[in-house]
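Here is one chain, start to finish.
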Amino acid sequence: MAKTYEAMQRKGPVSLTGWNYLDLNNNKQLGDIEKKILFSRKKDNCQVFNFTSSRRHEGVTTVLSNLVNYMDKQKTDRKILLVDANFVSPRLHTVFNVPNDKGIAEALLEDIYLNEIVSQVSSKISLLTCGRNIGQFSNSFDQERFVDLMSDCKKQYDCIFIDSSAVLTSNDSLSTAVASDMTFLIIKSMHVQKEAALKTKALLINKECVIGGVVLNNVHHVIPNWMYRIL
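Its structure:
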């Protein structure tokens, strides 16, 4: 579904703030995720959607950036907040070229208003970065305050998407998942072992997290030999 960051930066259509997005021949995959999100919002009043993976480098930020770009093009006035809670390897501030001076870290450590730490990416999309002081709480993430922060976000935005750290490499990822209404698991094809994916699923379920679905990323379709002969 998604390519590597390097491939995305080399080529592809530019949208929002200049980030190179996937030029997908078939947007059905992104559309299916959007439909799942909107259905869950309507049926179960879900607003906070967490995106995570088993291990690092599975393309969570890539998939989420493409999803937001896809939804930004839809003819709706839906307000979307993108939250960078990947405290191990935050990238969204570089993806959308916004400052990272104040973000989640500052919101959890200080009394600060939401509008002081949110950057506007487009007329529909806003971004809450991780902040520069993540080292001060990376080993003692305040889950309760994060839940309160997401509650404040719900009052101002229709949908909130969280870019989370990998479950098997960061304890913070389970805290962000608990604070969410639904979690999507990104799995990089031919990269993650079945046991790792199942362990991640079990950890999420053990925390009573709702798993909305699995997004298979970086799929390579092999062309059969007979097709090569007629091309």
